Amino acid sequence: MAEAAIEGTCEARFARVREAFAQNFARASETGASLAVTLDGRMVVDLWGGWADKARTRPWTRDTIVNVYSTTKGLTAICAHRLAAEGRLDFDAPAALYWPEFAAGGKESITVRQLLNHRAGLPAIRKPLRPEDLYDWSLMTAALAEQEPWWEPGSRHGYHAITFGYLVGEVVRRITGETVGGYFRDEIARPLGIDAHIGLDARHDERVAQMIGAPPPAPGEFNLFAEAAKHPESITARTFMNPLVLSMAIVNSRRWRGAEIPAANGHTNARALARLYGALARGGEIDRVRVMGARQLSACCEEESFGRDEVLMISTRFSTGFMLSQPGEELGPNPRTFGHPGAGGSLGFADLDAKIGFGYAMNRMGGAILLDPRAKALIAAVYESL
Length: 386
Description:
Elements: E1 6-10, H1 15-26, E2 32-39, E3 42-50, E4 66-67, H2 71-85, H3 112-116, H4 137-146, H5 163-176, H6 180-192, E5 197-198, H7 224-230, H8 235-241, H9 248-251, H10 254-258, E6 266-268, H11 270-281, E7 285-286, E8 289-290, H12 294-301, E9 305-308, E10 315-318, E11 337-341, E12 347-351, E13 356-362, H13 373-385
Helix pairs in contact: 1-13, 2-5, 4-5, 7-8
């Protein structure tokens, strides 16, 4: 089998990062991937390599994009923070102020903030859903408007793996008149010149890398989905299996790519993630394009949920829309750091102290629930290089 060719640019100071990226391929844990890092807005690492398909017949190129699962949540959260910066969205207002139908089922007091920090008690829908329902925005938002919370809102937190996108996205839609994908494209992606999409036009399909499923867990290793399958009526099972979302047949389909599922189906590459988070890392602005203000950036770093996650059954830590560092799952060594990983391994984050923007995207899924070992090795190499 031919060795993966690593292409792109890397400043000499960050040679260790290139080595770590190449080592992920050498250890056979990588099929195709891209990695990018900005420092105070300057792209200092922009690498890609490997293959865009399981058969290893199609090289991963400079412009390859890939589904990044929950890394998409960061893009959606940025839309909400931008609206807050413009004075159009109040995080502490009831979500029903913007979306009146949402008040049903005892949800009249749930705030927009609770939608963003996973404390709303709406990680799953109780009534049975078909896989194709994921693509029906009106159906999904109506089901969430009817749904009663699984716990008293604000009392606990649990990862809203798929519902996050419909909940926050519908608030964005009610305020702007645009879908969250359209708003993100017009207000953020195009002004920044980044190749990032929530809802992908078919003309881009030839550039999309094929997602490849994770290997089976080692004997005795904790498997969230196996545990959930034992209790099909549990919150965890309902979150990930009603309907099933972690299916390679689904995620590699045109229907998935074309829909707007703002918690899970963003398509992008590392370069776009690093530039976007790089803009946030240097105060929210780059090349005279302002993404959000200082007040919102501060909120992105502030802990709002921490401890046992009712869905993931491990410890998680969130701000308003972003995942934060916690022991063993650090986004670098600095305290003012925030971002979001995606199932399988992708990751984007900003470090306001070091002015670092980080992006990593891949097509071979790993089995970690939060940060993938490949991403952890790359993060370590970045900070060793500073």
